[in-house]
Amino acid sequence: MNQSYTLDNFTKLLRHAVNQSTYDTGHREAREVGHSTFYSRRPQDIITSAKLRQLFEYDRWGCDTSSNVQDAKLICDDNILTNVSHALRELLNEYIDPTTDRIGSAIPVHGQTGKPLATMRKDGLLDSEYVMPFEELTQSFVKAAAILGVTCVSSLLSRWIACEPVQYRISTLIDGPFFGSSVDIDGNILIEPLPLKSSALRASIPRQQNMTPTTYLGRTVVSILCRASPVFFKPSAEDNAPNVQTTSLASLDIKSICLILALKSDENVEQQFSWIDYGPLRAFSLSHSTNVWSFGTLNFNRSFRSHVGVSWDMTTGETTLSLEDDSIISLSDLNIKDTFSSLVMDKNKTRLALTRWLNSKDASKDLVDRFIDLRIALETLYLRDFINERSQEMRFRIALFAAWHLGSDEEDRKRIRKIIRDAYDEASTAVHTSKLEYSFRNVALLKHAQDLCRRGIIDLLSRKRLNANDWGDLILGIDINSD
How far is CA 10 from the centre of its chain? Predict the structure, then answer.
């Protein structure tokens, strides 16, 4: 059998099916509890393939037609659909289970009877796959061709048959400061602030039952480019292991990205929840279902800070966030890209200090724990020594090396040495007694020491590292930056 001829034949049949197909968008009816959508092929609910494509292109998160586009039911003559199915079956026959007539795929079909499978991994990624009746996959291809175009879908199929992976982004909503610009890191990591108006939220953002526009407005999404393969596989009832493997193309994981954003903004940054953003491949889906996952408790509710205003337009239903200008941080002003490169090269030591520093800034934690986290961060950074020496006094060395590393002159070094020494003493008290007075003095001391720790981390990342000789030279007053 000539594969190119079979693909050409499939393309012709697919184009004919798209031209002859319509879609039932359904209608909602009130029930005793909530509403239900019914698909009864009423004339006013039927749209053409061209109209489906138009709705998809202009789809937005809060639009009334959002779910209608994804859930629209294909209406096509059985003979036409059968011909498309036969041609597609010839191309994908090796992946079809002859007993059940089901096929496995990494394409986000989200059918009515198909079985989605998802495996959450420790690195924050999700291996996601779909096992479905083959006829459901056929409908998925017809629908995608109506939206993306027949040529595009045929080209995708050709590449997938040639074992090219599916490509998409794993997106994570983060909670933190308001960022006012986007940053693209090597095309593999996108840090993107979400809009302040609900009408501007894109349709690919998840719409779970408890989500409202305020779940997203003004927050930031971090998206990591990923690949998944194989695109097609033969399902097996005995095989419980995931068939599809996801590979991140990014050099850092989401945890590290959040650490960098926290470091550069001097604000707490936390992951909320993640989802797969399939981009244009969303056109293959037969429903608007989206996998959402989190390593903590899923929380869609949100409390706003005092400088944030929320308004609702009762006529249009639009929600708008208003922010004070000084509450918005520009990512482009933070030199994010340089810090990314440095953290990739780091051998985990600075990363540990960064993690502990951020933990110490968590205002929900007890003051004892925050001082202990800061102590560990300072030890990671400044528990240094002269080369070939073994000094015993940890408190002395940490304060000394920090003062010489961060101080600009004699008076500045004295001030820094005292802050670090006092903070270390309080942390030692916390370690030994598990008690610490919640006083203005201790809170202020923690803040000053945190600021110094942050400066140290940023400087070390900008230098890439200091070797043992550098640290010894540093406190002898030798300029380690000179050639």
Answer: 36
Confidence of residue 2 (pLDDT cuts 50, 70, 90): very low
pLDDT exceeds 60 at position 115: yes
Whether the Cβ atoms of residue 188 and residue 225 lie closer than 8 Å to each other: yes
Q: Secondary structure of the chain: what % helix, strand, coil (to 5)? A: 45, 20, 35
pLDDT in tens, 415-451: 999 999 999 999 999 988 888 888 999 999 999 999 9
Conformation bin of residue 28: beta by default, left when phi > 0, alpha when psi is -120 to 50: beta
- CA nearest to 452, candidates 387, 394, 386, 408: 408
Residues 388, 398: Cα–Cα separation, whole Å: 17
Question: CA 36: distance to chain centroid?
Answer: 32
| Residue 44 token pair | 């006013």
Q: Which residues face 132 on adjacent strands?
A: 103
Give per-residue burial for 183-194: e unless 16+ CB within 10 Å, then b: bebeebbbbbbb
Closest C-alpha to 247, from 165, 324, 192:
165
| Whether residue 392 has pLDDT greater than 70 | no
For 221, residues 6+ apart whose C-beta sits below 8 A from its C-beta are 171, 172, 173, 174, 190, 191, 192, 193, 194
Q: Tokens 């304060």, residue?
A: 399
Note whether 220 and 194 are within 8 A (CB).
Answer: yes
On the CB side of 300, how many CA atoms lie within 13 Å of its CA? Answer: 11
Strand partners, 35: 30
Q: Closest by alpha carbon to 57, among 292, 212, 216, 282?
A: 282
For the chain, give the percent of residues with pLDDT over 70.
Answer: 85
* Residue found under tokens 């039952």: 209
Those residues whose C-beta lies under 8 Å from the C-beta of residue 298, and which sit 6 or more positions away, are 273, 292
- Beta strands 328-329 and 178-179 are parallel
Peptide bond into 235 cis (omega under 30): no
pLDDT above 90 covers a percentage of the chain that reads 43
